[in-house]
Amino acid sequence: MTNDRKYKFSWELLGDIAAGRPNLGNKTSLEVYRLLLFTFRDVLETHVGTEMTDKIFHEAGYLSGKEFYANKLTPTKDLGDFVRELQQVLKDMGIGILRLEQADVETGEFVLTISEDLDCSGLPELDHEICVYDEGFIAALLESFSGIKFKVKEIDCWCTGDRTCRFSAKAVKAEA
Questions:
Q1: Contact yes or no for 63/70 (Cβ under 8 A)
Q2: Is residue 2's pLDDT more than 80?
Q3: From residue 41, how far is each of 48, 51, 61, 116, 140 by CA, in Å?
Q4: Please, which contacts does 22-27 make with residues 24 or more away whose CB atoms are closer than 8 Å?
Q5: Are 61 and 140 in contact (CB under 8 A)?
Q6: For 147-165, how does the pLDDT look when each residue is reduced to its tens digit (9 = 90+)?
Q7: How many Cα atoms occupy the beta-carbon half-sphere of 1 within 13 Å?
Q8: pLDDT category, 14, cuts 50, 70, 90?
């Protein structure tokens, strides 16, 4: 990659919302967010195909999760503290309602749900999961917390008829 990139992410790119939107603030409608998301996904899929689009969304979610952890969460080594703060920040920002359903710290396996998910709650049923961005986001959050890589897979989704998005997260073990 060259150094002439126009859009390399930094948290500062999110701007000074109070200065830039003194009357409207940081609130907008969910429809506007989803309009951006799904038109972006549509154009990407048209140009690079479904598999590459999902890969790009997963990578974007991963980058987002790393930046979110660094800028919105307090570093800790306590799983309970991490989950409690993450639940509160996700709720406060209107991203979703996180619930940790299963946690096996020894094996590095977790099952968590996000209800009222920003991306998909309320969408029509599509017979496939769509939250690949969230998979990357969650993987990066868990990695940032633990220092261990995670593979995250959505196993239930609003779009497959469930009323919450459920994710399986497994620590990626180093090859011996």
A1: no
A2: no
A3: 10, 11, 13, 21, 21
A4: none
A5: yes
A6: 999 999 999 999 999 999 9
A7: 5
A8: very high
